[in-house]
């Protein structure tokens, strides 16, 4: 090992996947190698935690597969709270051997990671669907009912009919077999996957709306009531995608 350069050792350590593989490198007395070993230990520990988290998030899927349900759909929505734009839902059926470490509730991920995971989910999923309900419908039937409509639309777009549905937070009643899970996007890989797809799709739409209706900072706030958004609302008044049933937007129509 001593005959290898530090650069060579670094290259080898990048390929190490287990603690046992590190034993030989620990015998190297060079300080540069010792630092590389410590960095590798940290990487392996992080990898271990991600693997454990992923296994925990498979618990619901494993439980229902053991009951005989094979096509398990996860459903989640994004956009219940914003003052503008649609509510978007996604439904995803994942393969039994699906693995994508680090996947979590979309709100916990950076934009770059969401985009990466979104593409991987679409590639690996058995099927996925997206449901979009406009601000007009939200104003007409209320956000709770609009959210349910978006979820049902997403489920209806699946090319495979699920025999069990896992839903974040709210009961849906669209199919006979379903389970509503509080904070499901952090507890179920299927719901987490749906959360990511819904978030990426809605963010894309809001960035397009930002170009159509500048002045509200939609590209950054995604329609939520941030300081810049409220300042734009006060200065420009509501734009065509604002939810007129939501305060403070509705005050402009009194």
UniProtKB/TrEMBL annotation:
Subcellular location, record wording: Cytoplasm
Gene Ontology molecular function: any one: RNA-DNA hybrid ribonuclease activity
Matches recorded under Pfam families: RNase_HII
Predominant cellular place of this UniProt entry's protein: cytoplasm
Family stated for the protein in its record: Belongs to the RNase HII family.
Task performed by this protein: Endonuclease that specifically degrades the RNA of RNA-DNA hybrids.
Protein name: Ribonuclease HII
Species: Listeria kieliensis
């Amino acid at each position: 090992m001593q005959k290898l350069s530090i650069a060579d050792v670094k290259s080898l350590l990048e390929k190490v996947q287990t603690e046992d593989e590190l034993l030989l490198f620990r015998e190297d007395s060079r300080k540069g190698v010792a630092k590389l070993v410590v960095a590798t230990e940290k990487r392996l520990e992080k990898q271990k935690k991600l693997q454990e988290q992923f296994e925990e998030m498979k618990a619901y899927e494993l439980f229902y597969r053991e009951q005989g349900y094979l096509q398990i759909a996860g459903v989640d929505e994004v956009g219940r709270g914003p003052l503008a734009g649609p509510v978007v839902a996604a439904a995803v059926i994942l393969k039994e051997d699906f693995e994508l470490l680090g996947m979590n509730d979309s709100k916990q991920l950076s934009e770059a990671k969401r985009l990466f995971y979104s593409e991987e989910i679409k590639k690996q999923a058995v099927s996925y669907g997206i449901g979009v309900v406009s601000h007009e419908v939200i104003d007409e039937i209320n956000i709770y009912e609009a959210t349910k409509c978006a979820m049902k639309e997403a489920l209806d777009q699946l090319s495979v009919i699920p025999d069990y549905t896992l839903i974040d937070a709210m009961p849906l009643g669209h199919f006979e077999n379903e389970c509503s899970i509080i904070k499901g996007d952090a507890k179920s890989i299927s719901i987490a996957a749906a959360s990511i797809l819904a978030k990426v799709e809605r963010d894309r739409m809001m960035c397009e709306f930002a170009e159509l209706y500048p002045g509200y900072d939609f590209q950054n706030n995604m329609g939520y009531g941030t300081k810049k958004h409220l300042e734009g609302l006060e200065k420009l008044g509501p734009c065509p995608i604002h939810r007129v049933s939501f305060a403070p937007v509705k005050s402009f129509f009194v």
